[in-house]
Design goal:
There is one protein chain. With about 170 residues, the protein is α/β, with parallel strands linked by helices. The chain has five helices and six strands; from the N terminus they run E-H-E-H-E-H-E-H-E-E-H. A four-stranded parallel beta sheet has the order 2-1-3-4, sandwiched between helices. It has a two-stranded antiparallel sheet with strand order 5-6. Helix 3 links the parallel strand 3 and strand 4. Helix 1 packs across helix 5. It is globular. Bound molecules: the ligand Nc1c(NC[C@H](O)[C@H](O)[C@H](O)CO)[nH]c(=O)[nH]c1=O and ligand LTPLIIQW. The site of the ligand CC(=O)[C@@H](O)COP(=O)(O)O has 7 residues, from helix 3. Ligand LW54GNZ2 binds next to strand 3. Catalyzes the formation of 6,7-dimethyl-8-ribityllumazine by condensation of 5-amino-6-(D-ribitylamino)uracil with 3,4-dihydroxy-2-butanone 4-phosphate. This is the penultimate step in the biosynthesis of riboflavin.
């Protein structure tokens, strides 16, 4: 289905866990910062809206999205951090450079997530142009930063339910 005129950030928020004692790290790429700042704002505000305490949200900037994997690992290996959100925007260039970055980060954050047994959320936009990026960072298609935050919260909730034998 085409994403034309569709808000891609529509998600259910029923049954979200209490996150008032959970700690989140958000890694933000400086490349295309006019977009990544909007993703960060969306993620941060969504965490606050659903109960996270400002003191329990830490942020680290990286130069580009390729570096999100490393920063995610540094955060994930900390025992006090429950989930990591990696935010970036990799815009299609003239060469395949963007593909290498995108695949590396997708695989990288997956590896970190599995290695440290905690959610590491892939909040990286992979648009063809700046318009597509802005559409997904508070524009007509919602804000993927919001979505990344909700995903982190839901995964913390699921992890708790599985660990407690509730499922
Ligand atoms: N072109 C984009 C980049 N490129 C930079 C790389 O992410 C990386 O910093 C460099 O290759 C050094 O390791 N990064 C983005 O986040 N977005 C881009 O559009
Ligand atoms: C995705 C990028 O890193 C970007 O700077 C590469 O652009 P190009 O493919 O035109 O070299």
């Amino acid at each position: 289905m085409s994403s034309a005129d569709k808000n891609l950030s529509v998600f259910t928020t029923e049954g979200l866990p209490d996150i008032s004692n959970k700690k989140f790290a958000i890694a933000v790429a400086e490349w295309n910062s006019e977009v990544t700042e909007k993703l960060f704002e969306g993620a941060y505000q969504t965490l606050i809206t659903y109960g996270a305490l400002p003191a329990n949200i830490v942020r680290g900037n990286v130069p580009g999205s390729f570096e999100l994997t490393m920063a995610s690992q540094w955060f994930a290996q900390r025992a006090d951090i429950d989930a990591v959100i990696a935010l970036g925007v990799v815009i299609q260039g003239e060469t395949k450079h963007n593909d290498y970055i995108n695949h590396a980060v997708a695989q990288g954050v997956t590896n970190v997530s599995l290695k440290y047994d905690k959610p590491v959320i892939f909040g990286v936009l992979t648009p063809n142009n700046m318009e597509q990026a802005l559409d997904r960072a508070g524009g007509v298609h919602g804000n993927k930063g919001d979505e990344a935050a909700i995903t982190a919260i839901k995964m913390i909730g699921l992890k708790g339910q599985v660990a407690n034998g509730q499922l």
